[in-house]
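Journal club prep — side note

Before the paper discussion, L.F. wants everyone to see what a predicted structure for a comparable chain looks like in token form. Sequence:
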Amino acid sequence: MSVATGVTADPYLPGHGDPSYTVRHYDLDLDYALESNSLKGRAQLTIEALQPIRQLTLDLHALNVVKVTGPAVGRHNHRAGRLNIQLRQELSPGELTTITVAYRGVPRTVPDKIGDAGWEELTDGVIVASQPGGAPSWFPCNDRPDAKSTYRLTVTVANDYLVVAGGERTGMRRRAGRTTWTYEQRSPMATYLATVQIGRYDEIPLPGPVPLTAAVPPARRTAFEVAFADQAAMVDFFSRCFGPYPFDSYRVVITDDALEIPLEAGGLSIFGSNLLSRSWDAQRLIAHELAHQWFGNAVTLRQLHDIWLHEGFACYSEWLWSEEIGGPTADARAREHWSRLIGRRFTRTLADPGIAQVFDDWVYKRGALTLHAIRRAIGDGPFFELLQTWVARNRGGNVTTAEFVALAAELGHLQVEAIVDTWVYERALPALA
């Protein structure tokens, strides 16, 4: 039997994802007109059945479906952001097929209980910030964090705009006033990590232990060079802490607009011009988004309730960087933030913060405090061995809190289970020994 079209994959993202299949590869061909904010797209999806299916559902928000084709495709309908496709014959578990969707329209952010996300116009350009459920704003997808895929993306825009996306740039062709940019992301990643950034940017190569580049508005270049002077050192430091950088390259994009928060995507991070500063608040966020390349992008949660496995690890990376550059130690940062949380009455656990609180600051800080408690209990050498093994074993995959505890036990750190029980699964804030 096939999955019912009303079933979704993650209770924190109702109306997204179909657990009956996964997408192995997305081949996306986009043509975008900035003056009218209109998008034409063609998406070919290589899908694999995870159970016997006669129908499946794709997520596509606000855009109009022109045509759906494929060797197994029958009838389809598109309602309320869900493209339901009947198949001509049943697919068996492990069986592959392709589905091609032609679509067009004006992309809009996807409204969810957690918050709007997806394709947005800038003053002069585009930002795609899809976490957690914005990917359907610009391509048809199986929008769930545990369905990781490779990508090929071509984007055609006017000649005077630079297109930046995740993965490696494999082509750039100019003709008739327009340029087609091609990127390939060979490292599997979740749909919310796929991105397109379009703007009048200068592309700046940076020295570093891996290929580093930045897309920066020309007038912001000097401020960028001051604010991001430590970018290469950060990559080197986190590589020593967590293991080799997990993607082929790293890019940062600086929008001319101010942004409320920075955002990570697969192999790149996006910052507003308001973060071009040497202040700690700016520098910690530069470190935070970089750390997500290990924790969140390479190693990705299965469901959003385990968000501390992303945000707690990235927040703790801020404290590690503070210690590395001679600022307050991670222990001092931990005590500072513990003292701010101790008076709080927690209504949810870190293991299940709820839709309304999943990206609240307490989740980030309590997650980081959990890691600090583990570090203090097992010592620096074993702690960083644990993190490096965690990344090495799970790169390109999906994880749970239980799997993190199991790995710690395998490495001989049986006390980690009790620490996680009190910090992650109980409401009351534990003492910071």
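L.F.'s comment for the group: Residues 1-193 form a domain with the Immunoglobulin-like fold (CATH 2.60.40.1730). Keep this in mind when we get to the figures.
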